[in-house]
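User: Let's play a game. I give you a shape written as tokens, and you guess the letters that built it. Ready? Here's round one.
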């Protein structure tokens, strides 16, 4: 049987800069075989373009009939990058039974920003007993909100014990606006209203973005005659169906990194390692223990926000090949600063727009003195115009001035206030800023050659002209500043890897300690107190730029660094070797002696005995998990149910307090016949 007639699996990873594709056959050897791989630029304005470029290339390399593909699986860093960069649609948050003071908890107010919030009386107590619900304020606000937001997030007090008020608000919003609504009980069964509201808010912001990604992929697959199920990698490394991911996009945060862990384990066979995946926007670091990624029991933290999403214990840093390069303010010998914001590399902008970029950079170089906005240009992202709803007057005016051809910031902006306005447009995902990045530095030094080296060099020249605290240029040549930038990226990579290791060991001040240790290693001055550190396991370096940026890593982390052969498509490979895994939870409480209340899914029921309540809870979660597994894309799920009890002993008698019942369903995804 030839490779053309075997069932084939197509993995896709849509990253911030590149879209990767890999064709894999599980019938080739004990671990399968990568038959072909390819990359294309991610096209944020129309994701189908980047996806089609990568997949068409991989199909052409393999000489494969598209009909032989029986499963397509996709991982994506889009949701992760959006949270790190503060992007996403404008949404309205509906808080039922909460007060304005609750916004100050768990970072909710910071996450909300300028998006609207509506407070309504209602909610439930810890046993699911209802307060009086009043949605009149929400009803009155819906006509205006429906015209200015892309979706709604609804969170009610103790909705995990009784979701009735969230369901009422959800139904009202859908009826009056037709917009997507996320209810908090759908995403998490954990207590902690403000953090659950935060998770729900972020989910609502991401729906349009993930919806566009899935629609673009499905449209492309149909056009190529690939009649295979489409799966998406979740943040815990499990696979779910595209329809499942569309409703719960927050669960795809850390999707790309989770897939990379699965891919790293598959490619190296290492059971214990620190995995560091460097992309264009972020570096994602996690730990493999016994062949499995560590999960974060408190929920994933991305972009500074602690969510309730179960995901790999991944630390995400705004550090990558396309990180913004900046200079420390006010120092005599200023340091190079990288990230957390992603810029469009000048080399990429130059490749896409040619003279429109180079002519502006040359003009700025002809000026006798360096300018504050040298080497920076703005360009529209090309997203649909409806996503620009709700702009202020100043934002709309500036947005009109920015077109599809990059415009130099020194021509565009005339005040600091306008700079803040531009940053808001960037945060909304409407505008990109192009500028000098490590990717440009690599082009200057001939270590990367896939984009326009001329634009990269012009950007390096402009950056090298910047002045230090003595009024002197910070570098003598483009090559000199490029070397400094790449050295800084390797040093910061070592810092984030060590910071992750220290945090996993439960040490406080992990970032400070990691910085100090790496700085000692770089300076080669041990000081009076000799300090050294070494990881107890090797680093697996992932990402297309890992061979470049991680070459100098071993002496800084005290262990080896393994860069696998297919490191550039680790995420795409990890996307096709995983399993579907979903869970369902129920809580059994005792509101009063002799009455046992089961809250499972969207139902609340009472029983007169503990045994009957536990049995009902187990039956419920098993059925819910089985249904979710089918929705998530598997027809062969194995289900395991576990119960955890909280009890006390009073005068020798056992007293039931609460039970937590969890069902986990897992299985291989269904494939086309």
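Assistant: Ready! My guess for every position:
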């Amino acid at each position: 049987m030839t490779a053309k007639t075997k069932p084939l699996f197509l993995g896709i990873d849509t990253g911030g800069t590149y879209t990767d594709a890999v064709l894999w056959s599980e019938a080739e050897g004990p671990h399968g075989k990568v038959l072909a791989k390819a990359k294309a630029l991610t096209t944020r304005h129309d994701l189908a373009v980047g996806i089609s470029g990568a997949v068409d290339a991989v199909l052409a390399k393999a000489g494969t009939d598209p009909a032989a593909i029986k499963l397509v699986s996709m991982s994506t860093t889009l949701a992760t990058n959006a949270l790190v960069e503060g992007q996403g649609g404008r949404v309205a948050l509906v808080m039922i039974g909460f007060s304005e003071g609750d916004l100050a908890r768990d970072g909710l107010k910071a996450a909300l920003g300028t998006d609207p919030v509506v407070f309504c009386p209602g909610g439930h107590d810890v046993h699911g007993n209802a307060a009086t619900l009043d949605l009149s304020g929400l009803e009155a606000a819906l006509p205006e909100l429906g015209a200015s937001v892309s979706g709604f997030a609804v969170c009610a007090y103790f909705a995990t014990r009784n979701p009735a008020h969230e369901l009422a608000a959800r139904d009202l919003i859908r009826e009056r606006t037709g917009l997507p609504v996320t209810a908090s009980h759908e995403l998490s069964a954990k207590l902690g209203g403000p953090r659950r509201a935060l998770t729900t808010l972020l989910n609502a912001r991401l729906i349009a973005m993930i919806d566009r990604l899935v629609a673009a992929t499905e449209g492309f697959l149909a056009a190529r005659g690939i009649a295979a199920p489409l799966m998406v990698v979740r943040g815990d490394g499990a696979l779910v169906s595209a329809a499942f991911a569309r409703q719960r996009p927050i669960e795809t945060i850390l999707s790309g990194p989770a897939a990379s862990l699965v891919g790293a384990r598959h490619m190296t066979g290492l059971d214990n390692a620190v995995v560091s995946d460097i992309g264009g926007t972020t570096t994602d670091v996690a730990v493999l223990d016994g062949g499995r990624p560590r999960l974060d029991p408190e929920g994933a933290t991305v972009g500074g926000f602690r969510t309730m999403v179960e995901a790999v214990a991944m630390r995400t840093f705004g550090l990558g090949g396309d990180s913004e390069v900046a200079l420390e303010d006010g120092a005599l010998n200023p340091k190079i600063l990288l990230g957390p914001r992603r810029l469009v590399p000048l080399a990429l902008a130059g490749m896409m727009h040619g003279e429109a970029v180079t002519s502006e950079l040359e003009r700025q170089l002809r000026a006798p003195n360096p300018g504050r906005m040298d080497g920076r240009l703005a360009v529209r992202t090309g997203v649909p115009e409806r996503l620009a709803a709700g702009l202020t007057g100043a934002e709309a005016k500036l947005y009109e001035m920015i077109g599809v051809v990059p415009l130099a910031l020194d021509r565009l902006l005339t005040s600091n206030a306008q700079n803040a306005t531009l940053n808001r447009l960037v945060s909304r995902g409407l505008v990109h800023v192009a500028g000098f990045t490590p990717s440009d530095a690599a082009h200057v030094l001939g270590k990367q050659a896939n984009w326009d080296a001329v634009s990269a060099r012009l950007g390096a020249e402009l950056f090298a002209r910047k002045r230090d605290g003595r009024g002197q240029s910070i570098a003598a040549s483009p090559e000199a500043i490029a070397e400094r930038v790449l050295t800084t990226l390797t040093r910061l990579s070592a810092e984030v890897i060590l910071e992750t290791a220290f945090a996993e060991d439960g040490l406080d001040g992990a970032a400070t300690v990691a910085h100090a240790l790496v700085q000692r290693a770089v300076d080669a001055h041990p000081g009076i107190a000799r300090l050294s550190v070494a990881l107890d396991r090797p680093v697996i370096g992932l990402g297309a730029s890992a061979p470049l940026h991680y070459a100098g890593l071993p002496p800084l982390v005290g262990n080896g660094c393994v860069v696998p052969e297919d490191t550039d498509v680790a995420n795409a490979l990890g996307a096709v070797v995983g399993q579907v895994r979903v869970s369902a939870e129920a809580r059994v409480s005792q509101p009063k002696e002799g009455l046992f209340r089961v809250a499972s899914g969207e139902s609340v029921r009472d029983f007169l005995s503990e045994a009957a309540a536990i049995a009902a809870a187990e039956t419920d979660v098993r059925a819910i998990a089985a249904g979710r597994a089918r929705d998530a894309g598997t027809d062969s799920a194995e289900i395991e149910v576990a119960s955890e009890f909280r009890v006390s002993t009073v005068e020798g008698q056992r007293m039931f307090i609460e039970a937590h019942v969890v069902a986990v369903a897992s299985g291989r995804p269904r494939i086309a016949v």
